[in-house]
Structures are given as C-alpha cells and as structure tokens.
Design goal:
Blueprint (H helix, E strand, L loop, with lengths): L1 E6 L2 E6 L21 E7 L2 H9 L4 E9 L8 H5 L6 E8 L6 H8 L10 E2 L2 E2 L5 E5 L2 H17 L9 E4 L3 E3 L7 H4 L4 H17 L11
Length: 215
C-alpha cells in the first residue's frame, strides 16, 4: 500500500508509512463506557478520516484499523496487498445523547469522496474503498437513506458507490497509525492530501464540531 502524491512533475511515494516501526505493535481497543455506542466507517486513508470524525461533538475516541475482510488481525502491509479483503477504517466511540448515528453517517459522507470506487484521491486499491458498516437494521436504513438524500442533491455529481454491509469484526491498526494526523503535521502526505480533506469536512460539519475546531 503506497500513498502517492504529485508535486509538479515529481512523484513521491510514501510506502506504507512504516518508518521502521514494528508492524505487530497493534493498538488496543478502548473499554466501551456505559451508554456509549460504536460506529465503523471506511473512506480512504484512515489518517484524515480519524481526525475528521474525532472533531465531532459527542465523539470520545476514534481508533484506526481494518475491517471488511477475512484475515484475522491483519498487518498494514498485508491489507495493502489487497488480498485480505480489508479496508482502512475507523471505529468511533460516541455518546448517542450528544450525537446520533444519523449525524455520524452524514458526516462520514462528507469526510471523503464516496463516489470514488476503490480509491480516494491519490490512494488506489480496494483497501481504500468507501465502506459503511451497520450493526442494526435501523443503522442500515439510515445509511441507505443518507445515500439516497445526498445523491438526490447532486452534491458530488456522480452517484455514491459506498458499500453498506453488516459489521462482523474490527481489527485495530498498529500503534503508529493512531492519531497520525496530529502527530506528523510536517508529513508531505498530511499537508497535501489529509489537511485539505479535513478542512473541507470542517466547513461542511461546522455546526457539529467541538468548540475548539469551529473556526
């Protein structure tokens, strides 16, 4: 899995963002608080998706990871081969008294471009596909209704291609992926790809952002 960025005539490859880290050093899942609910979405690189969703009011924790495939506890490198079936996703722990699943679903569709099939901007492959998981029939209905509403507005021009599938399992990504957006602001990929996506999200979801992110 490579993140590809075009600067003028030059092409720079960010190969897996491994940076010499131990790929077996996985993050841990947080203990779910009483009354807290969980949602799982994938929309391209989880660095920007994680940052965007964490800025929403009512969101307590966002964990980057992998879902949608068959391999148990895959590594970043394995997911990048596109042979595991997994996509880069984020798992969101939120307070339903503050933010609803419907609002999270709406935000998800503006945190990436859901009309891009098996890619997001410069990132290519099924591991970057747009995918939304539901845990109940109600959540499935909400996701399908949100797709229908956004398509009707012609906001994106092209129809949404997001997969809407039942949740089965989530595997946390390696520790060095967690909070990567804030930990590596100097990264060329973060500056050129992630920051524009997060800024677009902030404009679209301004009323739902935590006070510190309402510019």
């Amino acid at each position: 899995m490579k993140r590809i960025i075009l600067f003028a005539a030059s092409v720079f490859l960010f190969a897996g963002c491994v940076n010499g880290q131990n790929s077996s050093d996985y993050a841990s899942l947080p203990q779910q608080k009483p009354g807290e609910q969980v949602a799982t979405f994938g929309g391209g690189c989880f660095w920007s998706m994680s940052e965007a969703m964490s800025e929403l009011k009512g969101v307590d924790k966002v964990v980057s990871g992998y879902a949608g495939g068959t391999k148990v506890r895959p590594s970043y490198e394995e997911v990048g081969t596109q042979e595991t079936g997994h996509a880069e996703v984020v798992q969101i722990y939120y307070d339903p008294k503050v933010i609803s699943f419907a609002t999270l679903a709406h935000a998800f569709f503006f945190a990436h471009n859901p009309t891009e099939l098996n890619y997001q901007g410069p990132d290519r492959g099924t591991d970057y596909r747009s995918i939304a998981f539901y845990r109940t029939p109600e959540e499935k209905a909400i996701l399908l209704d949100e797709i229908k509403k956004i398509d009707a507005t012609k906001h994106y021009g092209d129809p949404i291609v997001t997969q809407v599938v039942p949740f089965k399992a989530f595997y946390p990504a390696e520790k060095y992926h967690q909070g990567y957006y804030r930990l590596h602001p100097e990264s060329g990929y973060i500056q050129s790809v992630s920051v524009p996506k997060v800024e677009k999200f902030q404009k679209a979801m301004k009323a739902e952002l935590k006070p510190e992110f309402q510019k």
